[in-house]
Amino acid sequence: MTQYVGKPLSRVDGYDKVTGKAKYAAEFDVPDLLYGYVVNSAITKGKIKRIDTQAALNLPGVVKVFTHENRPKIAWFDMKYKDQDAPPGSPFRPLRDANIVYNAQPIALVVADTFEMARYAASLVEIEYEEDKHETAVETNRHKARKPSVGLTTLFKPGPPKPRGNFEESFSASPVQMTGEYMHSMEHHNPMEMFASTVVYEKGRHKSGGRYTIYDKTQGVTNSILYVSQVFDIPFKDIRVISPYVGGAFGSGLRPQYQLFMAVMAARELKRSVRVTLTRQQMFSLGYRPANVQTVALGASADGKMTALYHGVVSETSQYEDYTEVIANWGAMLYPVENYKLDHKLVHLDVATPMDMRAPGGVTGVSVLECAVDELAFNAGIDPVEFRLMNYTERDQIADLPYSSKELRECFRQGAERFGWVKRKPEPRSMRRGGTLIGWGMATGIWDAFHMPARAEAVLMVNGKLRVSSATADIGTGTYTIMTQIAADTLGMPIEDVLFKLGDSDMPAAPIEGGSWTAATVGTAVKTVCDDLAKKLFKIARKMPNSPFAKATFTDVVFADKAIQLKNDTSVSVSLQAVVDANGGAAVRETSSALPNLFKQRKYARATHSAAFAEVEVDEDFGTVRVTRLVSAIAAGKILNPKTARSQIIGGMVWGISKALEEESVMDHQFGRIMNHNLAEYHVAVNADIQDLDVIFVEENDDIVNPLGVKGVGEIGLVAVPAAIANAVFHATGKRIRTLPITLDKLL
Ligand code: MOS
């Protein structure tokens, strides 16, 4: 019956996006709107001694300046509330007191009748600080690193497991070895759309307060409504959060950001509608991918069997939250090493708390591990693909469970074939094109295949069209499109007659869009609710006067061509429009929950896998690296839409090039401040950096992960790419660059 699932449909939201009809959080027209501009701290640690807002207030159109001295009473300041993606600790609360705990921390909000006036007035707020000594560098503070307070890491996964076997003994006895220390820079998400919240204030239904309709840039309206309700002690029924479109987020929208707090606070106090938008520079005052130092030691037998693995991580976090990623675990998940020891420590610095950023922890750890494995294979004199096949496992070594499916072998085979890997000369510096060195490198990728609980609603409307909704998000990933495909197939309707809606807290709840779990999670909820609606429609059809289904059961019918038909004789049918008419002309609606089948899942490890193959050209005179070819073979279960899925993988590959060669938030540790806080100096890969990208989806059938067999493709596209490029750079030059990004200075 499948008609749309698996087909390369163009985005159903594409037209609205390219014509500007799609509206983002800062674009909704609201009458009588006030604009807030945030003042950020100029120091990194200390106290505000004096804050003088008079000059700002004297300007025409300036309504109010909120500071820690005059801010209203806020419920959150006296209790512990954490958003859905908060790590262990005590979240930062803007304007709570005079303390400064990180540079560019928000310390005041200027509200005026235009954005420009608010911004100018903000520049006139005079602040006197009492400055303390700060520490912001991971490298010089790594001796202070300690175990995270709680064993759980971000995305609800356990931290490094207990050691297995005896690493020290086995490593020192290994005839083939490698050791290395690696450093990765801090990175910021830098989505195109800046964070913004437009809070529409209306007089409340009861005297206690107002009603708030909030257009928010977020990866989860459910997270935002819970946050606003708890933080400000406003009942749910007086809040609605709407976020139909998100201009990229990559994890930065998993936590409510401070513009939401500021906008709601101002709207509630002033009883006016307020918009707070952050500038590009202020986007660097939010969470980020943490800088880290990693140490790896690997041992193998003379014939290339991996025997010993150590992966130790020191990563940064703030003074107030223990942000902990899964960085060290991946090696023991990918390779059947008898003796492993994994370690993860945090160094608490005077910085903002880091945040999940595309493949958080996964790309961080794998980018190092897969360079180390390349080095070990080289030391053993074995081809890197061959070496990985020799050290292949069907079981997750940490959970000690078989994978529900794992077509990584096929990724190696198909990727190598497409790339032409057999023509690789193993010696470094042995391949040239004209005056430039050519390098070919490869790496493995792995990411989780999560499935979370979610709800959805399906309505067969009076006009015979289907409307399905869930309070999920589409951060550019294609959620609108794939959910429309699933709904259309389940009820046998043409895609034009199906409308999928998301991003509204009035809709049935869904988790934040993250972890690559939305296709599996919301997809299953959409499938479930459409199945449930089908049953309801059949019941109505069966009771219709002279129903052809009077003696039929649900298993006797199919849904096709906007009708219910007998399986055995499809000419016997009742149109969906007739069902609505039989329902007294009223819409037929159903709401359902879909939970992961834990009973089925618990006996298996679940993950996506990939293999990336990269070709680089290195100019030895200038130290410049160009990625001329990149092939990614992806095993991620069923691909619902090869077009939108390919776009996800390509986005990840571009990011991988960016991460390997360009991206880095450069901090001046003397000031504790990020110097390149703009898109001119924070380099990301642009069109001119991208040449030949090739994506292969390897067939993978899996009925354990979820009923759809879907594993998610949001993050796996990135994971293997930086290591593949770093390994290609080694192959081209003979140099192991262990600090990302590989900028030209490191190659000269
Ligand atoms: Mo992703 S970093 O879970 O949005």
TrEMBL record:
Q: Which Gene3D superfamilies match?
A: Aldehyde oxidase/xanthine dehydrogenase, a/b hammerhead (3.90.1170.50), Aldehyde oxidase/xanthine dehydrogenase, molybdopterin binding domain (3.30.365.10)
Q: Which GO terms describe its molecular function?
A: iron ion binding; oxidoreductase activity
Recorded coiled-coil stretches: none
Which InterPro entries does UniProt cross-reference here? Ald_Oxase/Xan_DH_a/b, Ald_Oxase/Xan_DH_a/b_sf, Ald_Oxase/xanthine_DH-like, AldOxase/xan_DH_MoCoBD1, AldOxase/xan_DH_MoCoBD2, AldOxase/xan_DH_Mopterin-bd_sf
**Residue intervals of the Aldehyde oxidase/xanthine dehydrogenase a/b hammerhead domain:** 19-133
Q: Name one Pfam family in it.
A: Ald_Xan_dh_C
Q: Which SUPFAM superfamilies does the protein's record reference?
A: CO dehydrogenase molybdoprotein N-domain-like (SSF54665), Molybdenum cofactor-binding domain (SSF56003)
Database matches in PANTHER family: DEHYDROGENASE, XANTHINE DEHYDROGENASE
Instruction: Please give the name of this protein.
Output: Xanthine dehydrogenase family protein molybdopterin-binding subunit
